[in-house]
Amino acid sequence: MKITIITSSLTSNYSGGSTHVNNVVYRLTRYFDVEFVPSINFFINNPKAEGELDKIRKNGIKIPEFVYSFSFTSLKPSFLPYSPSVYEAFAEKVKLDSDLIYDPDYTTPESVFISNRNKVPLGMALHEPLYSLSQSILYTYYSLKPFFLNSIDYFIKRSIALYLLTRRKEGYIKRANYMSFIAGVSKGTLDSIKINKAKKYLLYPGNGVDKELLQYRTKRKEDYLVFWTTLIPPKGILNFAYILKSLKNKGVDVKAKVAGKFLYDKFKNHFFKYVDENSLDIEYLGFTEKKKLYETVSKARLLIYPSLADGFSITVLEALALGTPVIAYSIPTVYSVYKDVPAVRFVKEGNINRVAEEAERELRNGELLDAVFSDEVRSFVEFHNWDNVTESLVKIIKNIVNNR
């Protein structure tokens, strides 16, 4: 059985979605004849594109010869999808003889146009939910506390862009003539899809974690909290500083360590100015190599993770694997994955004072810390491995192709 993968990259690990793609797609070669056709974003401002293609090919994935002729020098990076004419012109250059096209992280619609052009069945996975208008507005608003008044321009642009992105992604799905299935990495993500265009499946498990993380687990905790991910407002970095200030106002003397990369200088400056003005005890580690990051997280007493932009949250899964309990916002996607895990406590999104209360409670009684070392949590982590994720997807693909 031949599967054509269409996505933006098979070499980067900058997000949960890209981590999933890299771990799963290469494993698919154990089951299928796999080829890779990059989406347009793979080529935009990427002088190393040909080298990356050669590396991918050497790792067992075929690259059609026509891919090496692609050129998109006239296009610039865009948060929103390009016009349909761009994708139609791209699809005309792609000739396939596959049994299925699979888009492992649906963010741009090349797979839809290529499927229609070649009349090949299409399956896709969603790692981010399709946000409603209220979610686009409220989540963006919550993510900017306590800097909303300094960030109204960002609030307006982000809210509108997030909603438009969702509507365009949804609109392109409706254009697919050969859609076979849509898979979600969490029930919350799957529930956000209101389109009855194809069969919907829950990938279970939806994401995995490397087993090596379990080696770092330790009950010898040091006296600090931790936060790590891409350091942007939707992931909760501004809320994290606000929560620490709230704890300080309660008389809770707490240290924190932050790891990751700030993408926007504006919010980086807001963050550090707020830390200095409020004398918060935060150590910024920057973008940290994995071993040091794992050691740091494993020794923390608690991960506070007020993210408002996740479809699953590998960060939470990695924290549990490393033996560190979590307090997180109860956005539907993350809640649907971890609601029954006793080492994760949820707070209604945007309720910063409640997060601080729950953190104070945990620092005093260690209830979540006890739970994270339970057999139940360890079993949950061990089940969420990349082999199981791949096998879940393989069952879906075989069921679709064999029964069409």
Automatic annotation (TrEMBL):
- In terms of superkingdom, the source organism counts as Archaea
Keywords noted in UniProt? Transferase
Name the SUPFAM superfamilies on file: UDP-Glycosyltransferase/glycogen phosphorylase (SSF53756)
Q: Which Pfam families match?
A: Glycos_transf_1
In terms of CDD domains, this protein maps to: GT4_PimA-like (cd03801)
Domain Glycosyl transferase family, chain residue ranges per copy: 217-369
Statement: the UniProt record of this protein carries the keyword Transferase:
yes
The GO terms describing molecular function are: glycosyltransferase activity
User: InterPro entries in the record, alphabetically?
Assistant: Glyco_trans_1
Q: Does the keyword Iron apply?
A: no
This chain's protein is named: Glycosyl transferase family 1 domain-containing protein
Q: What organism does the record attribute this protein to?
A: Stygiolobus caldivivus
